[in-house]
Amino acid sequence: MTTGNIISVEALKALHQPGKRLLGLDLGTKTIGLAISDGLLTIASAFHTIRRTKFSRDVAELLEIAAKEGVFGLVIGLPLNMDGSEGPRVQATRAFVRNLAAHTDLPVLLWDERLSTVAAERAMLEADLSRKKRAEKIDAAAASIILQGVLERLRQL
């Protein structure tokens, strides 16, 4: 089912062309964590963190990265509440996606991101990263966990 740029995981798989990649986003109030897949859609890697300033600047940086990296679609974490309900953060994410649609035709898959930041924090603690290093990398690491979940689902289709 398609609503504007928002598509299903099945539709996303159908759009993939060899060598093209996905860009995963973990939207925060101050930053946007980015992760990128390989061209075979097997592995997600933490990539970059955008320090949010103004929507137009954030989107310009995001789309510049997408073009440079050969991205065919965006995976954006949907911050559902633990009970599956939608709160204010989900509404902010949906608003971001609506505004983004005015700037790009890239398809967007919204993906349940519950516990992605917790998992990223745990992985970085296990890697014995300092608090400062964890703070610098948490958003991109969370984006990679979100994107890896999508890649695993794509393999099942």
Compile the SSE list and pairings.
Layout: H1 9-15, E1 21-27, E2 31-37, E3 44-51, H2 55-68, E4 71-78, H3 88-101, E5 108-112, H4 116-126, H5 131-156
Parallel strand pairs: 1-4, 4-5
Antiparallel strand pairs: 1-2, 2-3
Helix pairs in contact: 4-5
What does this structure look like?
With 157 residues, the chain is an alpha/beta fold. The chain has a single domain, classed as Nucleotidyltransferase, domain 5 (2-Layer Sandwich). The protein is built from 5 helices and 5 strands; from the N terminus they run H-E-E-E-H-E-H-E-H-H. Helix 4 (116-126) packs across helix 5 (131-156).
Distance between the termini: 16 Å
Domain count, please report it: 1
Tell me the helix content. 40-55%
Strand content: 15-25%
Total helices: the number is 5
Major sheet characteristics: 5 strands, mixed
> Which residues form runs of ≥5 with pLDDT under 50?
none
Q: What is this entry, summarized?
A:
By secondary structure, the protein is α/β, with parallel strands linked by helices. The chain has one domain: YqgF/RNase H-like domain (Nucleotidyltransferase, domain 5), CATH 3.30.420.140.
